[in-house]
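Example 4.3 (complexes with small molecules)
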Amino acid sequence: MQGKVVNGVSLPHIPWQEKPEGCKDVIWRYQQNPVIERDHLEMSNSIFNSAVVPFEDGFAGVFRVDDKARNMELHAGFSKDGLQWEISEERIQFVKTNDEIQDFQYGYDPRVVWIEDRYYVTWCNAYGWKPTIGIAYTFDFRTFYQMENAFLPFNRNGVLFPRKIQGNYMMLSRPSDSGHTPFGDIYISQSPDLTYWGKHRHVMSPSMGWESTKIGAGPIPIETDQGWLMFYHGVLTSCNGFVYSFSAALLDLNEPWRVLKRGREYLLNPRTMYECVGDVPNVTFPCAGLADADTGRIAIYYGCADTCTSLCFTTVNDVLSWLDTHSQC
Ligand code: BMA
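Answer. The structure with beta-D-mannopyranose bound is encoded below.
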């Protein structure tokens, strides 16, 4: 199957490298990985699982930065080319949109999406030190306005769709527990205003070996004429701990809880030194994807071993064609 990006933007300056000669993989790594090293900031222990979007004539991002006291924080950053990043040494100081919003305790695994007139950030946000989904908006990546949490604890991996569908905003999420959750399905929730969420629907459960413990949505789904292209991570529990890989699925455009195709195998898994060795070994965790509407090129930012941030590439056609012959449904 071939497909086109719909409602997307032209990104002639998307970070890009052609597939290496002889490479048979559907997703290939940037040869100069990692793009952001763990010690990129003076105060950082690690910078990983981070979100990047087109901004002005370049890119902006919200980065998961763990400091040397091992606080989990969110920092804003800017880049002209998506490769060289200027990330703030200070964490984002959210402006509360009402007094009842709790002071920041910890935040991690951000996603960023442009919807209508502004950028929204979702992240795993502590509420009474318990994880749920925080939401904030920004116009400039300098001031961030924090809204009400989307859900009650416990939840993680909240990922918004880039537009309303059938009149509602939609968010994928992964209900969980308070720890290193040993289970997890992807659900979708709907909202008329990004505050009140309901009409919850099941999307998919763990299935194949590589994703048999839990799954969670990754980057903001990419709208194509064939459906929503969603990259998602899957976790296998080995005798030596969790292994985080990722693959792709295609969701129905109007009813995105309907799964049209879903990879049987992972598309990328921990193999390189920077993916296999770090604070948490064997983790490849995608949180953002840039898509060029003109060429269908996709650049995915993914966290490696909970330590650094890397890039990998594919195209809409490469993934859709692969799903034709490698779908489990
Ligand atoms: C998850 C999150 C991710 C992390 C992963 C592997 O629960 O904390 O940020 O990459 O575990 O440690």
